[in-house]
Each structure stands twice: as structure tokens, then as C-alpha cells.
Design goal:
6-stranded parallel beta sheet; Alpha-Beta Plaits; globular; single chain; Trk system potassium uptake protein TrkA; ion transport; Trk_Ktr_HKT_K-transport; 14 helices; Rossmann fold; alpha/beta
Length: about 450
């Protein structure tokens, strides 16, 4: 595929690095030559110095035969304009990064498609949804729902009380086991496990299950004593914080602490009265204690500084907060955050990349998710009639190493897959694989 990425900022360069490993024909376009030069020459792509809203520049970049045009500059209006021009000059698919929720409303979808903007992504909104999903339950690192919750992915860290430690997976139960272990993060390594693998202390284990069996997974993970989240404290009044406050369930109480008075006033205007806005320094432990940190079940650090967020979560953990979430935009720090036992790590570059990666696939994929701390991806495929995946039971499909089928949704019902499961046309199949392997298995579904 020929892919043009407009914008050599954080999201654009992360995408370019990911996609260049896939041996795609990548052009990274930016009018700022310094940003392009800073990217370095270690990646298999072409750097193009011009404005993405210049017709002549787009033509020179070869937009007329681009399979995918991605506009991820910091300026929403430039992204929309660039996609509009690219589509009219011949690009097959376009994606624009936006920061206006109104554009995503269903009534506006046709309007943007007629203009030539085929898909819109709002990374801050996606990050906020992920935060809310992870704080709903204090014992969960990552939570992801497929087909409206018919099948659920749960990522949780194994502590001493876990019942499934040091037992080969094939001994944990027979075909009626109500969950499937699809990935294990151990130190810097990610495993797509097989029957002889065992779960060790401090592993992060990813389960798929149905809603009915969530309490069972919680029990075997040894997390029954974790408190339910009722009180949430957020450090930093960013756009992600604003969206998080708008998405939290009504039964939760939330406080947002920010040291910028004008931002606090703005938050007070746009957020519900039940959200308390506090003007102060979120790094001030005395202030946090005064505001009830010790009675808080979840602490979320969303400042623009990764180091500050990591340290703030560490401090909150030491004060007894069970659930912490840190926004870590510096990808080099994600491993460090995990080794320090920061709870959930949020990285909006990775979240945005997952959604854009979905558009590269030829098969019918409705969801792609990057597991932030694990070097693994999850994809939800819709099975077509006659596709290879329907020909044999799962155990005889010859799936490559590093890939597992976590479950499927059939007629709205979640099903945990076993080796004898025969996949049918119309099923929604949830596949887990090591990072960037999705492209290698899509032929099973198309």
C-alpha cells in the first residue's frame, strides 16, 4: 500500500515507524523541515517537505495513487482540508485527526464522506473511554468490550492470592472453562500462550470471557478484596480529563486538580456540577491528602508530562490508592511505568495508531486495539462465507505461532473458543497476536 502521512508530530511519527516495519510504501509529509530531519533515517520511508494543504505539494507527493492518506497535524481544520484535497486528487481512503466531538455524531458522517473525509479519529476521546473502562473496576488494568459487551477482554496483574499461578494452562480446566487466557506480559516479553505455559507471579494476564463469568475471573485472579471505585481524583485538566469527566458513570464522584486558574474556570463552565474542580498543584501531597486522597479508590494523572504522571501515581500508590492510571506519551517510558507497577498506562499515539491500522486491512475488521503495555494487538473480524477460517476446527487451521483466537460472538452471544470450535460465516471473531501480525492473518477471514 502507498500511504501518505501528513504531520510529523507525535502521532504521525509513531504511525510512520509502525507502518514502515510493515514494508508499506510510506511518505511522511510536513512543511517543517526540522521535524522531518529529527525523525532520522533509520526507517524505510520517504520524507517530503511541503504543506499538506498545498495542491501542488500533494500532487508532487503522488497523492493521486495513494491507497491511504492520513492527516494528523495538531490543527483539526488543516487535517480536514488536507483530506478533502487528497480525496479529490485521487486518494482512495482518507483519515483526519480532529478534536471536535460534534464531527463524530452519526448525522455528520455522510456529510464528511461526501467531502472526501472517509474516517475521523479523536485520540483524546478514545483515551478517555479507555480510562473510564479501566477505572470501572479497581482490579482491572485493561478492559475492552466487543459487540456491546457480548465478549470482554480483561487484563489484570497476578498477585500472591491468584489461584492459577504455576499451573500449566491445560490443567486449569477442560473445554467448559469459562475464560480463555489469550496473552501474558512477563517483564519485557509478551507471550501468546500454549497449553504447557504457566502463569507466574507479577505477570499481566489477558483473559477473554463473557459478562456472566467476570466474578469467576476476578476470583481466580485473587482480586475479590479489591474495593469498587466510587471516588476518582484526576491530576491535570487536559482535554482527556474533560472527556473522562463526561463519560464517568453517575455513581462515581470525581475531583479534577489543575494549577491553571483560567483552565479551572473553563472546566467549571463545561462540566457537570457533580465534578469538583480544584485550583492547585497536583504534585502537592498535602493538598491531595486534604482533598481526600486516602479515601480515593482511583487516581488518574493526565498532565502533559509523562515523568510527572508516573511519579504522581507512585505517590498515590504509597498513600494506599489501589487503582492508578498514568498518561505516558513518551513511549520509551512505558516499560519503566510498568516495572514501577503503575496501574493502567494510557498512550494516545498507540490508541490512534490502532484505529488507523484497522483501515489498512482488506478483511472486514470492526475493531483493532493495541495492548499498551504488552507488545500485542487485538482485532475483531467479521467472518465471510467461504473464508478459510470456516473450513476446519480451530485446532486444525494452522494459525501461525504468536496468534490465538480469544473468542467469538455468534448471534449476539459471546462464546469462548476451544480447539474443536468450528467458526461459521457471520461470526465476529476476536483474534490476539503479537504486534503487527494482524496483516499476516487477514487472509483467513477474507
Amino acid at each position: 500500500m502507498k500511504i501518505i502521512i501528513a504531520g510529523a508530530g507525535a502521532v504521525g511519527t509513531h504511525l510512520a515507524k509502525l507502518l514502515s516495519r510493515e514494508k508499506q510504501d510510506i511518505i511522511l509529509m510536513d512543511e517543517n523541515e526540522e521535524r522531518l530531519n529529527a525523525f532520522g533515517s533509520n526507517f524505510d520511508l520517504m520524507a517530503f517537505n511541503d504543506s499538506p494543504t498545498s495542491v501542488s505539494g500533494l500532487k508532487e507527493a503522488g497523492v493521486e495513487d495513494a491507497d491511504l492518506f492520513i492527516a494528523v497535524t495538531p490543527d483539526e481544520s488543516r487535517n480536514v482540508t488536507a483530506c478533502l484535497l487528497a480525496a479529490n486528487l485521487g486518494a482512495q481512503k482518507t483519515v483526519a485527526r480532529i478534536d471536535n466531538y460534534e464531527y463524530l455524531l452519526p448525522k455528520n458522517k455522510d456529510f464528511f464522506q461526501k467531502l472526501g473525509v472517509h474516517s475521523l479519529i479523536y485520540p483524546e476521546m478514545l483515551a478517555a473511554k479507555e480510562i473510564v473502562a479501566s477505572i470501572r473496576m479497581s482490579w482491572v488494568r485493561q478492559w475492552w468490550e466487543f459487540c456491546g459487551g457480548a465478549l470482554i477482554l480483561i487484563g489484570t496483574k497476578m498477585r500472591e492470592k491468584a489461584e492459577i499461578l504455576n499451573i500449566p494452562l491445560h490443567q486449569l480446566g477442560g473445554p467448559d472453562l469459562p475464560y480463555h487466557i489469550v496473552a501474558i506480559k512477563r517483564g519485557n516479553e509478551t507471550l501468546i500462550p500454549r497449553g504447557d505455559d504457566v502463569i507466574k507471579l507479577h505477570d499481566i494476564v489477558y483473559f477473554t470471557t463473557t459478562r456472566k463469568y467476570i466474578p469467576y475471573v476476578r476470583k481466580v485472579a485473587g482480586k475479590e478484596d479489591y474495593p469498587d471505585v466510587r471516588n476518582v481524583m484526576i491530576m491535570g485538566g487536559s482535554r482527556i480529563a474533560t472527556r473522562t469527566a463526561q463519560y464517568i458513570p453517575d455513581y462515581m464522584q470525581m475531583k479534577i486538580i489543575d494549577n491553571d486558574l483560567s483552565r479551572c474556570n473553563r472546566l467549571s463552565e463545561i462540566l457537570d456540577d457533580r465534578i469538583m474542580i480544584i485550583n492547585g498543584d497536583g504534585r502537592d501531597m498535602d493538598l491531595l491528602l486534604e482533598e481526600g486522597l486516602k479515601n480515593t479508590e482511583a487516581f488518574v494523572a493526565l498532565t502533559g508530562n509523562s515523568e510527572t504522571n508516573i511519579l504522581a501515581c507512585l505517590a498515590a500508590k504509597r498513600m494506599g490508592v489501589r487503582k492508578t492510571v498514568a498518561e505516558v506519551e513518551n513511549i520509551d517510558y512505558i516499560g519503566m511505568a510498568e516495572s514501577l507497577d503503575i496501574g493502567t498506562v494510557i498512550n494516545k499515539k498507540m490508541i490512534a495508531a490502532s484505529h488507523i491500522y484497522q483501515m489498512m486491512l482488506d478483511a472486514d475488521v470492526s475493531n483493532v486495539k493495541c495492548l499498551t503495555v504488552a507488545n500485542a494487538d487485538v482485532a475483531e473480524f467479521t467472518v465471510k462465507a467461504g473464508s478459510k477460517i470456516t473450513k476446519h476446527p480451530v485446532k486444525d487451521l494452522g494459525m501461525p505461532k504468536g496468534v490465538t483466537i480469544g473468542g467469538l460472538i455468534r448471534q449476539g452471544e459471546g462464546v469462548v473458543v476451544t480447539g474443536n470450535t468450528l467458526i461459521q460465516p457471520g461470526d465476529h471473531v476476536v483474534v490476539f497476536c503479537l504486534s503487527m501480525m494482524i496483516k499476516k492473518i487477514e487472509h483467513y477471514f477474507s
